[in-house]
Design brief:
Elements (H helix, E strand, L loop, with lengths): L23 E6 L5 H13 L3 E6 L9 H8 L3 E2 L10 H8 L2 E7 L1 H8 L6 H8 L4 E5 L3 H5 L1 H12 L3 E2 L3 E4 L6 E5 L3 H12 L9 E6 L4 E4 L2 E3 L6 H12 L3 E6 L11 E4 L3 H11 L5 E4 L6 E3 L18 E3 L3 H4 L9 E8 L3 H11 L4 E6 L11 E2 L1 E5 L5 E2 L3 E2 H17 L2
Parallel strand pairs: 1-2, 1-4, 2-3, 4-5, 5-6, 9-12, 9-14, 12-13, 14-17, 17-18
Antiparallel strand pairs: 7-8, 10-11, 15-16, 18-20, 19-22, 20-21
């Protein structure tokens, strides 16, 4: 019999991350074909450091077995509301949970949850729970569009549950495509993280982040750009959204997927990025300029592809706009502005000069020559430089961890305003 403790060993825990480390997550699984995806979600939650309590409905067991989830989480799986020695499991599980997620949530389960039924372990847990609840519907598109399902979803949201809209795509064999697919485990994981994150000063704030490179056309098929993948900017946008902010990410061509929950505006040129920033800037409480826009563009782009035999001996270049400098007179009062400095020499002096000349609150210094930092890698080593105090050198870490360190400083600056 399981002992009800706040901690127990979990298998497969590879790199505990904020805010999952040692947090209890109750993962409910109902009877739908999408339940095979939930096994991947259980694994991701466990690898992120969460202690995962899985609850299977009777119909869920027709699709996936308890042993699968036991192997992935290292914890017992629960399914019975009334069983010898488990009379109060619905209360204990509800009380222990830091967050509850039901994935997939079938139309039948949503109907029962909306009407407050408690005829099985999972619905009884919902009635006993005070933790935030995330419901992840998955069903046929006609079932999703049915007026009764629409009313059930509206009511569940009214009583405080977070309900994700399903993705569009291929449904069961022979059913074609449409809205009804369960979102991917990575998307669900991000939403669980937002539920677990303690409320802070970024909650409800508007955060504007730029990411990635820009491209300046030489001709219709060639361009000037740089090696930025956008990973640092995407990590910053994800961290800000997880903390409850309304996030807009303005990105050039990215080498990674945009984060869940974030409004994304895609651009290509530096001029387009400047215009997009100008549109969003007046309402931004925080501006984080982590993009690497091109500093130069061809003075004139060719209208046709330049043939190798006709290649010019040189391509005249013109400077592009300084986006960060252009924001100085248009920033919202009391906003926090963060810039990045990628340097190869005189790194500290150059970063401090940029901090002053661009009127920044914080600058993040990268040394482009350091192994494991900068472009196209998962890690980064940065120095944080504020207007006052000594520079803070952070150790080499994953960019997601660096993003959290930067956002911690942003929150401190907002608290001081």
């Amino acid at each position: 019999m399981e002992t009800w403790t706040t901690k127990s060993p979990a298998v497969g825990r590879s790199n505990p991350v904020r805010p999952f480390d040692s947090r209890r997550v109750l993962l409910g699984v109902t009877g739908g074909i999408a339940s095979y995806k939930t096994a991947f979600l259980a694994r991701q939650l466990t690898q992120s450091g969460a202690e995962v309590d899985v609850v299977l409905t009777r119909s869920a067991q027709e699709f996936v077995g308890a042993v699968t989830f036991e192997a992935l989480t290292g914890r017992p799986v629960h399914s019975e509301l009334i069983a010898s020695g488990h009379a109060l499991d619905h209360i204990k599980l509800a009380r222990a949970a830091g967050a509850i997620v039901v994935a997939p949530a079938t139309a039948d389960f949503l109907a029962r949850a909306a009407s407050g039924q408690a005829g099985d372990l999972l619905t009884a847990i919902l009635l006993a729970a005070t933790a935030p609840v995330l419901l992840v519907p998955a069903m046929n598109d006609r079932m999703w569009a049915h007026p009764q399902t629409v009313r059930n979803i509206a009511h569940l949201r009214e009583i405080g549950y977070t309900v994700l809209d399903p993705d569009e795509g291929e449904l069961a064999v022979g059913e074609g495509a449409g809205p009804g697919r369960m979102p991917e485990p990575e998307t669900i994981l991000a939403h669980v993280g937002r539920l677990l994150e303690p409320a802070g000063v970024l909650s409800g704030r508007r955060v504007l982040v730029t990411a990635g490179p820009t491209r300046e056309a030489i001709d219709p098929v060639r361009f000037i750009s740089n090696r930025s993948s956008g990973k640092m900017g995407v990590a910053l946008a994800a961290s800000a959204w997880r903390r409850g902010a309304h996030v807009t990410l303005i990105s050039g061509p990215l080498g990674v997927q945009p984060p869940a929950g974030v409004h994304v505006e895609q651009v290509e040129t530096t001029a387009q990025m400047e215009a997009a920033v100008a549109r969003e800037l007046p309402t931004a409480d925080v501006l984080i300029m982590s993009a690497a826009p091109s500093d130069f563009r061809p003075d004139e782009a060719a209208s046709q592809k330049i043939k190798k035999s006709d290649a010019p001996p040189s391509i005249p270049l013109a400077p592009t706009a300084d986006i960060l400098q252009s924001t100085a007179s248009r920033r919202a009062p009391g906003s926090v502005v963060v810039g990045f400095a990628l340097e190869t020499e005189n790194t500290l002096a150059n970063a401090k000069a940029k901090l002053a000349s661009k009127e920044l609150d914080l600058i993040v210094l990268n040394d482009a020559t350091e192994a494991g930092a900068g472009f196209e890698v998962e890690t980064n080593r940065v120095t944080l430089i504020a207007r006052t105090g000594e520079p803070e050198v952070l150790p080499l870490a994953l960019k997601t961890e660096v993003a959290d360190s930067i956002l911690d400083r942003v929150e401190a600056l907002l608290r001081g305003r």
